[in-house]
Amino acid sequence: MVTLGTVSEPVVALTIAGSDPAGGAGVAADLRTFAALGAHGTFALTVVTAQDTTAVHRAEPLPVDLIVDQVAAVTGDLPVAASKTGLLLTPAAVDAVAELAADGRLPGLVVDPVLADRYGRPLGGDELVTAYRERLLPHAAVVTPNVHEARLLTGAVGGDAAGMVVAAEQLVAMGAGAAVVTGGALTGADVVDVIWYSGDVTELRRPRLATVNDHGSGDSLSAALAVALAEPGATPVSAAARAVDFVAAALRGAATWRIGAGHGPLDQLGWRR
User: Fold this and answer.
1) Closest CA to 223 of 101, 83, 105
2) What is the mean pLDDT of residues 186-201?
3) Does the predicted model carry a pTM greater than 0.90?
């Protein structure tokens, strides 16, 4: 199991994300990741979905004021030190989270801009993309799009690492502190993730693993990165490297599982490592 260190009291981590009743993605993946890394997980639910390992069959956004009240309740009582977003789904929800970040309630914010499904099909319209680009990214310590989401946000991503670098640079120019563009959706013997931070580019490479059990990998990476970023002395580059290692181990652990008819969950808790 990849661990990020121990403390006398656990880091309190907050995810603002949607549900997955099949337990693979969203809040379920985030809370398992937080627990695996020794953090106390808290959450604000944004969207209730009906989904399984094959598809999202229905999604109902929660009222924006309820999202805000959940965050206010958690941050008003617990010392949140790590935070991240997942599925927000509506421009109004994105705007509300941006206002919470502007008020200082979301320290070390990692924005996972859930804008497309695994096949690159957009989950929202231009207004949602604009809300992320103009209002939430300027509050992100790190933004973690996959190549499909990076393309929607910047229009820059091609089919290789060079295009990912261009997109990552543009995301930082939009106001994010750092950008991690993940390349799992591309083809090739290796998976390449690109980090742009402080004018420098870092590429993280690992062998591609043949598995269908990858549902929630993006959620898990952003959750692990948020926890790692809260470690003393961490930088976006060191936190991203630790998060990538964590997700790679979780993918390996679940590689042979047969849970559901589609894309199954990751082994965040290290049951098979």
Assistant:
1) 83
2) 92
3) yes
